[in-house]
Structures are given as structure tokens and as C-alpha cells.
Give the backbone structure.
Amino acid sequence: MNSVIYHICTWWLVTVSTGEGARAVPLAGHVGFDSMPDQLVNKSVNHGFCFNILCVGETGLGKSTLMDTLFNTKFEGEPTQHNQPGVTLKSNTYELQESNVRLKLTVVNTVGFGDQINKEDSYKSIVEFIDAQFEAYLQEELKIKRTLHSYHDTRIHACLYFIAPTGHSLKSLDLVTMKKLDSKVNIIPIIAKSDAISKSELAKFKIKITSELVSNGVQIYQFPTDDESVAEINSTMNSHLPFAVVGSTEEVKIGNKMVKARQYPWGTVQVENENHCDFVKLREMLIRVNMEDLREQTHTRHYELYRRCKLEEMGFKDTDPDSKPFSLQETYEAKRNEFMGELQKKEEEMRQMFVQRVKEKEAELKEAEKELHEKFDRLKKLHQDEKKKLEEKKKTLDDELNMFKQKKTAAELLQNQAQQAGGSTTLKRDKERKKNKEHMCTWILLLL
Amino acid sequence: DICLIRSSGTHSSTGGSTLLGYIGIDTIIEQMRKKTMKTGFDFNIMVVGHSGLGKSTLVNTLFKSQVSRRSAGWARDEKIPKTVEIKSVSHVIEEGGVKMKLTLVDTPGFGDQINNDNCWEPISKFINEQYEKFLKEEVNITRKKRIPDTRVHCCLYFISPTGHSLRQLDIEFMKRLSHSVNIIPIIAKADTMTTEERQEFKQRVRKELEMSGIEFYPQKEFDDDMEDKSDNDKIREAMPFAVVGSDKEYQVNGKRVLGRKTAWGVVEVENPNHCEFAQLRDFLIRSHLQDLKEVTHNIHYETYRAKRLNENGGLHPISSSDTQESNL
């Protein structure tokens, strides 16, 4: 009797909950397909998981520190300067492992957000980045030969929007940016450096922010409440948004434990103390409860929206179900041909330009060659002239030398003759000189 | 809880640092499990083999329920169809909180005619039609959140226990379809053979399959890693499983067991000494159920899709704007 009731109840439960038109049948024993979730999970574990977080916020709001605190590690780099000319996105991928779960975590930071004087285009690079990740996935999905199950998913699963702790209201930059992002990514707004705000101010601040978001129609991520096991905690958390967080990787001794905290002269703000800030709530919601839901929402809602818009833009409609594979393929082919055509055109252009440049260079070189030749000729002529001059000079000198030689020989001849003639005179003169010398010596001696 | 972290990226830092303290990343397993249990699973199994091989009984034994209404008594009165028919029936079964929509695709008429030429064609067509249906849904602009999956995940091919070798039809069928669907060959009505006969038959069958180049599931080329390979090697060595099916229970040694009662004893279906049903069940349902689906989706479906998209690439509409491009 009991088993009959049991079977009827199971049957009823199953038909009510499935409602898919298939008849429910009771099982007469243990089959074993209840291991299905385990089989599926094991495969995913072997494969590894991906999670991508985008941090949007002004420079100096503690984005990097918060990431370090959330994932208990020091990620990278030095703090950025405030003089960036525009907003760029810097992305880093890390592999974390906890027990047997391998996670490929990508943290994307907005560098220079809010630093410019004119911030009208600040949101653009962020939107472009998010779209680029969707586009990459879409391209892979549209490929003929694709490897989707081993594709490294770079789509942003969660966007942490850092609100400056002014205590008053949202900045217009925040509103504009969040409005542009809410249909593309799961936004989780957080109040950064919330230890700058007192508790009473914080409550008012949160209310103000929430009401501004609602009145501006900004759709932030709601933690899902359809699964009974997490519905309660999620709905409580939904009411605590935006989370007021404090990040710190420094540890302080409180009691007999080392805790992550920020130490001030008037007290210590403990990061993991729920009375001090909402860090624990953020970690709980982001990682321990809803990580899978964030991934699923990104894929089934945001990505599908992007894909739909993109395909409609490319000119598709769902009206003709028969030719869907054809038209997608045709357009793909057409686009490819167009692309090839353009590529060829570009190649031609480049070739032309190249030929042109070569010609120019050639002409230049010819010019230079001509110049060189001319120079060489000139120099040669100069050299020859110089040589000629020198030779003339040499000749003149030679002539002079010859004349001098002649004169010399003539003079010598004369001298010889003179010497022979007056050779005795010289002798006489010498004797006289000697005599004079002797007379002088005697006179000197007599005088002394 | 001390774990490794390695980093790579646009601004790569040097080497790794250690994680201290629990983050909670491993909770994603639980999150994922909860989600899948909520959505439930689909599984589509096809049975192929000529009539009288106990296909329906075996499926009922596997899933311990009347998922196939063609029990032995009923089939006797049915006329054998003139051509191969494809009959698909779905049931929802639940176990341990896990809901599964099981679809059984029966192929009455296969191998039953005098001339069985091309009797695999309706089956091949059906399989491809399911891929086509899925593809059409997938290329829609506005897609369903969960595309209904009617693709055949597993095809149980029943080999007649002649004790000699495979028949020509067996080889033809498996050759043609092993590249578009996961085929698991099984030796039906194994209680007509002794253990030695069974072993010899198995060896011969395996050799023939190998010589004909038939890659049955689990295919060697799709083994993920060494662990997979060694697990699957053991299974491949033991295939094709020689099975006996029954939905009747008998009392044996004080226990109620599923079996077939004969004058010389009770053939216990779940007794590994009697037949290999338990092995088949464990392999099919308890360890490789998800893998069958994944191979179907990631490999067979992708092959179909690639072929389909390629073959329509040449069909350009001839128009003035396109003539230039088509000359490329």
C-alpha cells in the first residue's frame, strides 16, 4: 500500500513539475542516473572554470586593493597615476586553485576613469571592451569549424561599479556610465572606501543611491530568488545593495588573531567584521553563492541580447525559417569575399606605393651618383691644377738652384785664384798679427 | 587551503604567490550542481536490431520502468512493418531529486525484410533530422533559453547471438553510422551461449569491428586525458557487453532478483557471473551518461554543422553586385 502511494505521489510530483507533455513513470528500483549532476560537475571541474570581473571606478578608489582582498592575494602592479589622457582597460588573467577547482580569473581595470576634464566619452571605451568580448565569442560561434567547449571565455561576468564615498549622491558620470552598461553586463554597485562615511550617513547614502538608480532606470544585478535554498539570503542581500566595502591586505592583531584591517589612530576598521563594512556580504554574494548565476546571466541574457542586435544589424530576420543556415552562410561568404576584395585592393595600393617609392629612391640615388661623379671630376681637375703649379714652382726653384750653383762655382773659382795670388799676403798678415799679440802681452806684464 | 596562483596577462608579474585563507571558489561546484538539478536532464537513446532480440525488454530493465511499451507479449501480435519505422516515445523519470526526460527511439522493421538494402537510411535520416532541428534553433536570432535537445545521444546496436560472427548488415550499419552517432554494440540474449562461447564470440566480433574500421563508443580519438584513456581502454576491452534483459522478478537465495526462469535455473540479470548487464548499466548510466551527451554535442553535432554550412557555401545567388565577387 505504502509503495503504491509513494509511486502515485512521485508520479504526480513529477508530472506537475515537468509539464512537458511526457508521461512520468515510476522506477522499480535504483537505476543510477542520479549521478548525472556529479558526472556533469566532474567534467566541468576537469575542464576548469572561467570568471571575469570588470572594475569600473575612478582612480584611487581602491579597486586593486579590493580585488587583492577578495581573492586573498597580491595581484599586480603599482597604483596608476592620475594623468591618463583617456580611459583604457587593462586586463590580467590569473589561475587560482582551491581544493580541486581550478579557476581562470580575469580582472579588468579601468585606468584613468574619471581623471579627464571632459568625461563625455569615458564610458565609450568600457562599452567597446565589453562588446569586443561578446564579438569574439560570437565570431567563434559563427565559425564553420569551431571549438566552443575549449574556448577561453573572456566575456565579463560581473561589473563592480565603485562609487566614491562622498556621502551625498551619485555623480552624473556614474549615472551615465551605469545606464550605458546595465544592458550589457551584470552591475554590482559598491561604495568604495566606505570607512570614510559614518554609519548614519551611510544608511542615508545607500537610500539616496538606490532611489537615484531606480529613478534613472538603471538595472543593476539582482541576486536570484527563484531557488529556495538561496532565495532567502539573496533577497536579504538585495536590500543591502550597494555594498559599502573596505579593502585591505594588511593584517592587524586583534585579540589573539591576525585580521585584515585598516589601522587609524582612533580605531581599527576590520575588513571581515560585518559591523564595520559589507565586505563579507560582497564576497558571499559574488563568489560563494552566485558566481554560477552571474556566468549564466551573462551567457543567456546579455550575450543573447548582443547577438540578437548584431545579427539584426547584419540584416537577418527570423521570418524565413527554412533558409536560416543558408543566409547566414551566404552573408558570411559575401562578407568574406568583400573582405578579400578589400584586402586585394589594399595590397594593390601598397604595391603601387612601394613601386613609387622605389622609383623615387632610384632617382635620388642616380642624382647622388651624378653629383659624386661631378665632384670627383672637379677634384681631379683641382688636383691636376695644383700639380701643375707645383711642378712649375719646382722648375723655378730648380732654375734658381742651378743659377746658384753656377754662381757658387764661379765664386769659388774666383776665390781660389785670389787665394793663390794673395796667399803670401795672408801669411804676412798672420805673422803681423802674432807680433802684435806678443807686444801687447809684454806691455800688460810691464804695467802689472 | 594554501594554493598556487600563476599569472599571465598584458602586464605579467613575476611567478606566483601563495593564497592564504579560504576564498570560496570551490563552492561553484555546489552552485552548478543545484542549477543542473533544477533544470533537469534530457537523454535520448535509440535501439537498433532486428525484431525478437529483446530490445524493449533490455531498455525497460536498464531504466527499471516501462519506458518501452513493446513488451514481448505485445510484439507477438504486431505485424512487422514493411519499412523501417522510427518511433519515439518520451517519459520523465526521477531519482534522488534528479529529473530526467528519457526519450526512447525504436526502429521496428530494421533487418526484418528479405531485402534489407539501405534499411539504415531512415535511421540515418532521422538522426540527421534531429541535428538539423537543433541547428535551426541555434542559428535563430531570438533563441530559446534552452534549445530542446532531440539528438540521439546513444545508439544501442543489438547483435544477434549466432555465436559465429557479425552479419553483413551489422557491419554495414555500424560502418555508416559510427561517424554520426555514438554506437554501443551489445550482444543480445546472451543466455543462449555458454561463458566460453560468449568469450570467443566477443573476440571474433571485436576483431571484425576493428578490421572494418568501426569506431564504437567510447571512441579512442575522443579520450580526454590519460586517466580517461585508461578507464576507457578497460571498457573497450570488455565490449561488446553480452546482456540479458528481464522485467520479472524471482526469488533466488532469499533475494528478489530480476531474471529469466528456465527449467535449468534462473538467469540473474544483475549477476556479473551470468551476464554483463550490470557492467553495461554502470557504464552507460552511472559513469558515461553525461559523456555520451557531450560527445554527441561537441563532436557529432559539430561535424554535421560544419558539413552543412560548408555545402551551402557554393550556393551564391547570381546578381549584378555579386558577379565581381564570384569571380574571385
About this structure: Chain A touches chain B through 95 residues (CB under 8 Å). The two ends of chain A are 179 Å apart (CA to CA). Residues 12-20 of chain A have pLDDT under 50 and may be disordered.
